Amino acid sequence: MTETSAGTGAGAGTGTGTGAGTGAGAGAAATLEELERRAAARRDRPAYGHDALISCDRLVRVFSADGVEVQALQGLDLLVREGELMALVGASGSGKSTLMNILAGLDTPTAGVARVAGRDLLTMTARERLRYRREVVGFVWQQTARNLLPYLTAAQNVALPVQLRGRSRARQRAEHVGALLEVTGVADCRDRRPHEMSGGQQQRVAIAVALANHPSVLLADEPTGELDSRTAEEVFAAFRRANDELGTTVVIVTHDQEVAREVRRTVAIRDGRTSTEILRRTEVDAATGEEETVAREYAMLDRAGRLQLPADYTEGLGMRDRVVLRLEQDHIGVWPDDTDPGGH
Ligand SMILES: Nc1ncnc2c1ncn2[C@@H]1O[C@H](COP(=O)(O)OP(=O)(O)OP(=O)(O)O)[C@@H](O)[C@H]1O
């Protein structure tokens, strides 16, 4: 394989991606014409996330408690396309719930951009925020008791948000409620109150409630956290049907490896940023003709060209502070800095 350029010099730190990349590609000074062409291409490029339903761009959330600052989100980038069913995973304290609360319109970011279905979550007025929570997003919480009103039946719980919006007749409403309980697989629970249902049934009714006003996005924070694995599977099936049959975009925060494996896209959050992403696709084995799921893990490359290398890779190769980058024909090589064997 031919090297297009022999390295950007040992000074290419891990945090200086763009400098390293363009330096290697440019080689000798670019002509004025070439620079003008590049500037024009940049101008014509569509804005970041222009076709995404959810777009978070360098999102920051800082909490201050007792004079101590906690940076829960530290410049998080995330794009979710319409119709996706995806999972968010990450260690405790990585910022998942903070992100979900922002997307749900329950909390406001400190800085950055967060847009959902064309709404700007940083600049919404209180009235717009209320409307956003009623009409654009649906939410399912981990605690089953938090999702439903205890003195109403399943059907009444699902009908309530529709009634509050006040745009349909009683008969239409009853049909709509029946259809939603059908989609989530709990039609037999329509006249039961929450205490007369299992935890899994309650969560499936909660999904129907969240879907009641045809939201663009369904958000769920650990919706199967309090359930055993079989019941969790049934609840997950209801999310999948909402996604398949109603086309609702679904984002689920989960610790449950089984749930995370069931979706095509899993994004991991680390220290308040998206760090890696796993995409799964179905392939047919040429020899046996059997379908199998192939999973591939990707690192996230942000708009400044920054890349978070997995800690086990960098530690295994003794990479610290700075690395050597080389642009090859079809990939970029990353080597430990060998100018000082001590790594200092
Ligand atoms: N209201 C708040 N005030 C102060 N700090 C907060 C607040 N909410 C969250 N944090 C802090 O922000 C960081 C991220 O918390 P968050 O709840 O988003 O994490 P998480 O990934 O959802 O964790 P878990 O999986 O345990 O729910 C944590 O350090 C947490 O202590």
Description:
The protein is 33% helix and 26% strand. It has 11 helices and 13 strands. It has helices spanning 17-26, 32-44, 96-103, 126-135, 144-147, 154-165, 170-183, 199-211, 229-246, 257-262, 311-316; strands at residues 54-65, 68-80, 85-89, 111-116, 119-120, 137-140, 217-221, 249-253, 265-270, 273-284, 291-299, 323-327, 332-336. The protein has a 7-stranded mixed beta sheet with strand order 6-7-8-3-9-10-11, sandwiched between helices. A hairpin with a 2-residue loop joins strand 4 and strand 5 (119-120). Helix 6 (154-165) packs across helix 7 (170-183), helix 6 packs parallel to helix 8 and helix 8 (199-211) packs parallel to helix 9 (229-246). The longest helix has 18 residues, at 229-246. The protein binds adenosine-5'-triphosphate. Residues 63, 65, 70, 72, 90, 92-98 line the site of adenosine-5'-triphosphate (ATP). Adenosine-5'-triphosphate binds at residues 63, 65, 70, 72, 90, 92-98.
